[in-house]
Design goal:
alpha+beta; Chitinase A, domain 3; three-stranded antiparallel β-sheet; 11 helices; 7 strands; Triger factor/SurA peptide-binding fold
Length: 308
Amino acid sequence: MNLFYKLIFALIFYLGFSINSFALENKILFKVNNEIVTSVDILNEIKYLNLLNKELKNFDKYKIYEVAKNSIIKNKIKENELKKFFKKLDIDEKYLNEITIKYFDKFDLNSIEELKNLLQKNNLTLGEIQKKITVQILWNNLIFQKFSKNVKIDKKLIKEEISKKEIQEELLISEIVFNIKENETLEKKLSVIKNEIIKNNFSNAAILYSISDTAINGGKVGWVSLNSLSKKIRDQLFNLKVGEITNPIQIPGGFIILKVENKKENIVKLDIEKEFEKIIKIKTNEQLNQFSNIYYNKIEKDIKIHEL
C-alpha cells in the first residue's frame, strides 16, 4: 500500500473519530516548489474547510483530500508570489482582527475572543487562520496595484440604465468559475462538471471544480442587481427560471457557469448616486477577480508540485 492510500485510510479513520481519540502520523506528502506539505497540514486544512462549509463532510473522503490539497497548493502559490513584492507578509493587527471576524460572519461573532473559542472547539488556532486571511488580503492588494488602471467601466451608460429603471430585478446566484488546462477540452471539462451537478448538486460541483474564492461556500455569490452585471452575463441570466443554470460563459481567464437560486423585484425610487457607486464597485470587483484568475493561471505554470 503506497503512501497516498495509507494517508487516505488514516484520514478516513480520523474523520470518524474525535481529535482526542486518534493522532495522525505526520508524513511529508508533496512539495510546492521547495515548501513541504505534510499529512498534518492536510488534516488542518480539512478541519478549516469543514468549519466553513459543513456540506464538505458529505463528500467522498478521497474528494475531501483533493479539495484540501488544492486549497493548500493555491494558498502556497499566492504566498510565494507575494514574497516577491512584500518584505513581510503581515498587516495591521486591529484591521486583521476586524476582517477575520467579518470572514466568519455567518457565526454571528462579536469579538475576537468568541472567534478563538469557535476555532478551539474545531481544533484550530487563530494564528493559522489569520495567516490564510493575510495572504488573501495581500493578494487582493497586489491585484489592485497591478490591474486597477486596466479596469474599464462605461459610467455614462450605467447612469443612463439606472435612471430608466423603476423596477429593480435582483438575483440570488451561485457560480462555478473554471479554466481549461493544456490536456483538456471545454467539452470534457464541462461534462465532468455537469455530471457532478446532476449526480449531487451545483454546490458540490463548485467546491470541487471552481477556481473562484466562492468555491468553499458552494459557489454562493449572494443577491446581485441584474443591472450590475455585464451585458454578456445579463443576457444569459435574463430568461432563466429559478433553479436553472447558464451555458458556460467565456470570461477573461476562463469560463463561468451561473445558477439562479432565487429572484425578486423591487419597485423603488433609487438614490441614483448611491446605486451608481454600488454598481461601479461590483463591476470593478468583477473585473479585478478576472485579472486575479489570469495572473494566478500565469504564475501557476511555473510552479513545480513534487509528489513524495
